[in-house]
């Protein structure tokens, strides 16, 4: 039995063996219209891969117990549940991807093609650009790790105190404004200045106490510190709670039992962790989009273009089926299906538009006049691009825009194996036609699914409706690039929320058998409740809005004019886990130094209402009430609030019965 590779020399040997695979994958990805960041590939062993997964894809992170916990979880998952880390790539320029040395060659190829698509997404999606157009994340995170470790090693600072401070900040790591470009947490314009703000500004002037006393008397200072008209701030609710706490918070000192200024290291750690939260935010915001995008192009390259050769294909098919068929919510599957749907819908619309520009065809007679079977036959790829091999090379026309002249010459000279890599002989136009979605066996019925209403909607905005004399002439002008071009447009501008909101349709829900289910209070079990697209969409949207977590904002930094912090839960029909919320308030107290409050809405059901609903074969409607949680450093309290104090937080258009498990994770 051969010994598995473990040392550096074996890793280098594996890496060298994959060099041509990496090079060919990049060429193919580029030919398919992708434009990825450069990617550095690293071969790692089992333990290194587990560490990288725990570190979110990076080699250096700040010291903290959370990484060890994640490492242990990853190791046990793989040991007892058979989980396997196929891909690991980070958003960087160049990107860094990691290949586990023990994986089969088919797995390595699948990871490489998948990674190339991820690197394209990182480079082109605008949400990643909100953090930086040219990220150097590996260096940034390594620098953060070095700074935090230096504080832990400082004999003047208690290491446990640093770890506890990190814990306090991390409880708010998703409380940022991910929809705004990243900026340092320094200025908060148009807010009422605090005593600390004024003292800091005076200190910056470098004036003596005597001068300050002469020029800025107590009456003037009081005027600046206490504006009777504006006693609360910020003017509008702030999503970036970490930034607000860093600017206006104070640490609670257990010895003096009062709020005191942050230490410099505490303020710096808050900003470092906030910066990291912003860096990772786009990946959380685009999980379905990004994984679906990568799964789509991986499938094109590995399966349809034969990047997996004959003796690897079965292994790859098994790999792909496990990824797309994993139970529970699967972003790979949903994302890939939605990308394919966008491609099909775009191509279908393009075909219908051309047909409606044919003399004698209108939206009213479309289905009676057009032979869609004949249309599908005409749309099948030309044999010139559909069948490229060594036997057809001589018949290829170098002047054909679908033919790559350099690739053709190389293939004729025996430098390229056209039987193995036909894509090397084709241009982008040739590959688009070769992979035209409506002509694929699994999509052959898609054109026929278009309804009279859809045709009317397309025709409503069309002009020049007699451009073509025949159906054949119209179809000869169909744009085979339409689907892929549209996909790249969507890839640039959307996140998961906007992606689902715009492209999840009733047709998609029906085709893929999506439905909603709810927990029934009357029967104490789960039941399927709807297959309507709006219900399905609401269910899914709850998992993606604000990373699937409750949205908490700063409502007032001077609540009741007592320097208390008021946070508000922007309620969407899903209640907070009150016990967890109370624990978070305890940690936020450490960052504010004074009492912390949280407004939310709770739902209550009366047993009598449940019994009445059971007899009527319906579900009871819960009563919603305002609730104020408060922690003052010693006691946790919960107080009912009048509805007018929480009405602005109430949901308006959500599924009130939905409670995704991820919400409480």
Gist of the model:
The chain has 665 residues and is an alpha+beta fold. The protein is built from 28 helices and twelve strands. The strands form four sheets. A five-stranded mixed sheet has the order 8-9-10-11-12, with helices on one face.
Textual characterization of the structure:
- The protein is an alpha+beta fold and 665 residues long.
- It folds into four domains: 8-125 and 286-323, no CATH class; 194-226, no CATH class; 348-480, no CATH class; 520-664, no CATH class.
- It has 28 helices and twelve strands.
- The protein has helices spanning 8-31, 46-54, 65-80, 105-124, 126-129, 137-153, 159-170, 195-204, 209-215, 218-225, 241-248, 264-285, 287-304, 310-324, 331-356, 366-369, 372-379, 383-386, 405-412, 428-434, 452-460, 471-476, 482-493, 496-503, 506-512, 533-544, 578-592, 607-615, and strands at 39-44, 89-90, 95-100, 251-253, 258-260, 516-520, 525-530, 552-559, 564-569, 596-604, 623-631, 636-641.
- The strands form four sheets. Strands 8-9-10-11-12 form a five-stranded mixed β-sheet, covered by helices on one side. A three-stranded mixed β-sheet has the order 1-3-2. A two-stranded antiparallel sheet has the order 4-5.
- Helix 2 crosses helix 3, helix 4 packs across helix 14 and helix 7 packs across helix 27 (578-592).
- The longest helix has 26 residues, at 331-356.
- The protein starts with 7 loop residues before the first helix and ends in a 24-residue tail after the last strand.
- Residues 187-193 and 655-665 have low confidence and may be disordered.
Question: Taking all residues together, what is the mean pLDDT?
Answer: 87
Query: Reading side by side through the largest sheet, how are the strands ordered?
Result: 8-9-10-11-12
Q: Give the N-terminus to C-terminus distance in angstroms.
A: 44 Å
Number of strands: 12
Alpha-beta classification: alpha+beta
Alpha-carbon Rg, integer: 30 Å
> Strand portion, in percent?
5-15%
Number of domains: 4
**Helical segment count:** 28
Shape type: globular
Question: Helix content range of the residues, please?
Answer: 40-55%
Pick out the low-confidence regions. Answer: 187-193, 655-665
Report the sheet with the most strands, covering strand number, pairing sense and barrel closure.
5 strands, mixed
Pfam family, one: SpoVR_C
Organism: Halocatena marina
Protein name: SpoVR family protein
InterPro entries: Spore_V_R (IPR007390), SpoVR-like_C (IPR057008), SpoVR_N (IPR056174)
């Amino acid at each position: 039995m051969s010994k598995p590779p473990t040392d550096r020399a074996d890793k280098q040997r594996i890496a060298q063996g994959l060099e041509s695979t990496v090079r060919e994958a990049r060429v193919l990805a580029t030919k398919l219209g992708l434009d990825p960041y450069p990617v550095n590939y690293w071969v790692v062993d089992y333990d290194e891969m587990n560490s990288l997964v725990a570190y979110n894809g990076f080699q250096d992170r700040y010291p903290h117990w959370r990484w060890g916990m994640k490492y242990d979880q990853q190791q046990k998952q793989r040991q007892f549940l058979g989980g396997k880390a196929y891909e690991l790539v980070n958003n960087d320029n160049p990107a860094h991807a990691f290949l586990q040395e023990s994986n089969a060659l088919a797995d390595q190829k699948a990871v490489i093609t998948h990674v190339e698509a991820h690197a394209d997404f990182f480079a082109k999606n605008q949400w990643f650009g909100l953090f930086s157009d040219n990220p150097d994340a590996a260096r940034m995170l390594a620098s953060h790790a070095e700074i935090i470790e230096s504080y832990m090693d400082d004999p003047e600072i208690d290491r446990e105190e640093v770890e506890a401070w990190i814990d306090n900040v991390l409880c708010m790591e998703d409380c940022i404004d991910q929809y705004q470009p990243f900026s340092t947490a320094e200025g908060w314009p148009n807010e009422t200045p605090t005593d600390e703000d004024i003292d800091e500004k005076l200190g910056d002037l470098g004036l003596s106490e005597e001068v300050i006393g002469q020029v800025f008397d107590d009456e003037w200072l009081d005027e600046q510190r206490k504006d009777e008209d504006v006693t609360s701030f910020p003017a509008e609710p702030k999503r970036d709670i970490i930034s607000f706490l860093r600017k206006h918070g104070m640490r609670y000192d257990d010895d003096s039992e009062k709020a005191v200024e942050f230490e410099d290291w505490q303020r710096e750690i808050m900003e470092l962790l906030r910066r990291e939260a912003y860096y990772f935010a786009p990946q959380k915001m685009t999980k379905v989009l990004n994984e679906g995008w990568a799964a789509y192009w991986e499938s094109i390259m590995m399966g349809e273009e034969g990047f997996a050769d004959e003796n690897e294909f079965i292994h790859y098919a098994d790999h792909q089926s496990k990824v797309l068929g994993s139970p529970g919510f699967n972003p790979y599957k949903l994302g890939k299906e939605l990308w394919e749907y966008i491609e099909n819908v775009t191509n279908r619309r393009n075909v219908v538009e051309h047909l409606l520009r044919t003399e004698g065809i209108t939206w009213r007679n479309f289905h009676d006049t057009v032979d869609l079977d004949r249309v599908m036959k005409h749309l099948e790829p030309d044999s010139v691009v559909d069948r490229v091999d060594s036997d057809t090379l001589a018949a290829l026309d170098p002047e054909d825009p679908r033919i790559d002249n350099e690739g053709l010459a190389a293939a004729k000279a025996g430098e390229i194996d056209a039987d193995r890599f036909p894509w090397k002989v084709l241009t982008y136009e040739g590959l688009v036609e070769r992979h035209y979605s409506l002509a694929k066996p699994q999509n052959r019925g898609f054109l026929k699914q278009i309804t009279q209403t859809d045709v009317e909607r397309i025709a409503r905005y069309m002009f020049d409706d007699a451009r073509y004399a025949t159906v054949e002439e119209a179809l000869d002008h169909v744009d085979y690039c339409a689907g892929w071009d549209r996909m790249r447009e969507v890839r640039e501008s959307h996140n998961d929320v906007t992606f689902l909101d715009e492209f999840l349709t009733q047709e998609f829900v029906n085709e893929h058998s999506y439905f909603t289910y709810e927990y029934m209070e009357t029967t104490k079990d789960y039941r399927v409740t709807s297959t309507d697209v709006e219900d399905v969409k609401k269910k899914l949207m709850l998992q993606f809005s604000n990373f699937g977590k409750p949205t908490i904002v700063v409502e007032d930094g001077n609540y009741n004019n007592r320097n208390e912090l008021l946070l508000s839960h922007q309620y969407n029909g899903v209640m907070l886990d009150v016990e967890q919320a109370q624990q978070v308030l305890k940690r936020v107290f450490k960052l504010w130094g004074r009492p912390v409050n949280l407004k939310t809405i709770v739902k209550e059901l009366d047993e009598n209402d449940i019994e009445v609903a059971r007899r009527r074969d319906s579900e009871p409607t819960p009563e919603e009430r305002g609730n104020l949680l408060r922690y003052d450093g010693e006691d946790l309290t919960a107080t009912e609030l009048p509805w007018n104090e929480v009405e602005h937080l109430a949901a308006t258009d959500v599924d009130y019965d939905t409670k995704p498990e991820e919400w409480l994770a």
